Amino acid sequence: MNLLSLIQSKKAGVPLSTAQMDWLISSSVAGTVPDYQLATLLTVICYEGLEAAETLAMTRAFVDSGDTLSWEGISRPVVDKHSTGGVGDKVTLALAPLLAAAGLAMPKMSGRGLGHTGGTIDKLESIPGFRTDLSMQEFRSILQDVGCAVAGQTAHLVPADKIFYALRDATDNIRELGLVTASVMSKKLAAGAPCIVLDVKCGSGAFFRDEAEARAFASQAMAIGRAFGRQVACVLTDMDQPLGQAVGNRIEVLEVLDLISGSGKLADLREVLLALGSVELLLCGMCPDMESGRVQLQELLDSGVVKQKFREWIRAQGGRLSELPASPEVLPNMRSVAVQAGSPGWVSGIDCLQLGNVARRCGAGRMSREEVIEPDAGLMCYVAIGERIEQGEELARLLIHESRAAEADELLAMTQAAFQVSTDGSVPRRKTVLDILLP
Ligand code: URA
Across 238-242, 258-262, 372-376, which has the greatest mean pLDDT? Predict the structure, then answer.
């Protein structure tokens, strides 16, 4: 077999066979095919698409390209969760201790920020002392004792995806649905949990811009889950505005602390958290239906048990919560800039991608792979679509790291432009959870 013949046949509209897919992926990991031919094949795939059988074959070959994890010996039901990425998405930080408090085990391999979207590992590392480079032995022992553990992806889990992802990124071949499905699902399958819930986000701040794309991904991912004998459910959630108010790293941790301490102002975040959590409980047979699961989780939140579990988990991974500032208003080394409404009206739209990019440029994300994140940087978005606002009201607040203070005026203008205000009467509020698809 050779890669040129695969390119030629895919160009002619002939699907790749399972044998061709296996050869392609093992040769890529062995480094015996040139990058330029692999990048060309990925480009052709982006135009021709992958059929369901090709996506399944690619996922299987991806999983087989590295280690797979097993949670045998963990005494609680094991669950996993994945988000397709968004702005202000801090759900894992609350879901892991919530499910641990409910008696489940959530071993989670997470990533760093990508583009305008934040990453769980960056958020957790903003807690002084928090370690995400755990050995497998440490990881298992924290998982067994606490009920949750979060670490960075190991180099040995799905190495083929690392090669493919980097090439797709460098050649703008990111968005083909089969490639996305194989990439996401191979990592979840290799991570070994029998029950997996995917938070599939759609909207201006998400990977999938509209609901149809999000549904197509969900349906493929669930089909792959069935083929591997796993329980996979999808929760479709809105990402046309940030989730919660904080967009950054340390400020998102502070917001999670607020949420699990019973703050009433974070209804959207709570909604997503309870939807994902009750689906996890249902999948592993811990509740008869989603409503009773939701009630169970709500009680755990209200009782303060989840906050205790959160503290236990952070301590187990070396984090020192006592060294965090009390609120975003008192973060050191930050230029704090208020963004005010120019006119009264109703918030009719928020360019969530733009807000993600502003937070990134404030210092919350990386503009290049080498750049270091400023843990305190980011932005607070105080209004949601459908809210009535008055002239001069604070819509958002930028927390710009001192080293980027020269960009303050531009970032302020970008943020102002991200808010659309209607004066023609009220605008409906948006639903946060759009649909729940069970296996
Ligand atoms: N996230 C992934 O892990 N892979 C993709 O292809 C897209 C988003």
Answer: 238-242
Instruction: Report pTM.
Output: 0.95
Query: Is residue 131 among the annotated active site residues?
Result: no
Q: Which of 81, 112, 140, 168 is catalytic?
A: 168
Q: What is the rounded CA–CA span in Å between residue 301 and residue 306?
A: 6
The dihedral built from the CA positions of residue 54, 60, 66 and 68, taken in this order, carries a sign that is positive
Q: How far apart are CA 347 and CA 331, in angstroms?
A: 28
- The pLDDT value given to residue 369: 66
Helix (H) or strand (E) holding 19: helix 18-30
Question: What is the residue extent of each domain of the chain?
Answer: 3-49, 79-324, 328-422
The residue behind tokens 């040139």 is 34
Within 248-346, where are the H helices?
250-260, 267-283, 290-303, 305-316
Q: How far is CA 324 from the centre of its chain?
A: 23
* CATH class entry, domain 79-324: alpha beta
Would residue 140 show up in a list of annotated catalytic residues for this protein? no
Catalytic pick from 81, 187, 360, 401? Answer: 187
Q: Write the DSSP assignment of 159-216 as a string of letters.
A: HHHHHHHHHHHHTT----HHHHHHHHHHHHHHTT-SEEEEEEEESTTSSB-SHHHHHH
CA distances to 125, 379, 400, 401 from 365, in Å: 13, 12, 12, 12
Distance between first and last Cα of the chain? 38
Structure-block tokens of residue 221: 């991912």
Q: Is 184 touching ligand 1 by the criterion CB < 6 Å?
A: yes
Domain 328-422 has CATH 3.40.50.1000: no
